[in-house]
Write a structure and sequence with these properties.
The chain is α+β, with helices and mostly antiparallel strands. The chain contains four helices and 15 strands. The strands form five sheets. Strands 1, 2, 4 and 5 form a four-stranded antiparallel β-sheet that branches.
Amino acid sequence: MAIIIKTPEEIEKMRVACRLGAEVLDYIAPYVKVGVTTAELDRLCLDYMTQVQGTISACLNYAPPGYAPYPAAICTSINHQICHGIPNDRPLKDGDIVNIDVTIITKDGFHGDTSRMYLPGTPSIQAKRLCAITFECMWLGIQVVKPGGHLGDIGAVIQKHAEKNGFSVVREFCGHGVGRAFHEDPQVLHYGRAGTGPEFAPGMIFTIEPMINAGKAAIRQMPDGWTITTKDRSLSAQWEHTVLVTETGVEVLTLSADCPPAPTGIGV
């Protein structure tokens, strides 16, 4: 599969899709509280997508080769869960951290993919620091996107920042191109060497979604076939934006009214 360069018309439709994806995360934020179940958060998000936005969930019943259909509208990954956590009836506890990952599909067939960390209750100092450093990792990766650069630049800057702060980068999962398909080329690794990989070109659209562990990078897949956890049960965090390579740099497509702003005081 080759990297798809989006046309101006496709870019406009991706702007709409990505904004709608981000607005689901805005909508759900006030409900992410101690005592709520992730199944209830899933129900609320699905209702908002279908009844308010007129979108559908790309996650619900998603079934790549070798997988059973994913049974929910969103992914909710708590504490030591890295990604693809399935919503359930377990209430969130004080101190939990949770990633909510949303991908919507518009009536035009375009995907908007984004995720955020939520900290209900009073998280530990380590949990807050992990979420903050992961957020910085994502934005450092975004900052290096510009024509003439390479995909490896993203992974290099993310790996450096994570490891400098005593954390590790998950290797088995990565960012990806997105558009009419949920997952397109290129794969966007969150580790590696600068100056390697395909060169950025205007019209490329892909996600940057580092998964950073407080402990070691090793992972484990749960018996449900979807949920991925840290092998050592250390905390894990993830943030995700979808970005467009422009003629002069990068445009973040999954920004919204209540999206956390880019961190200050960091740079490459």
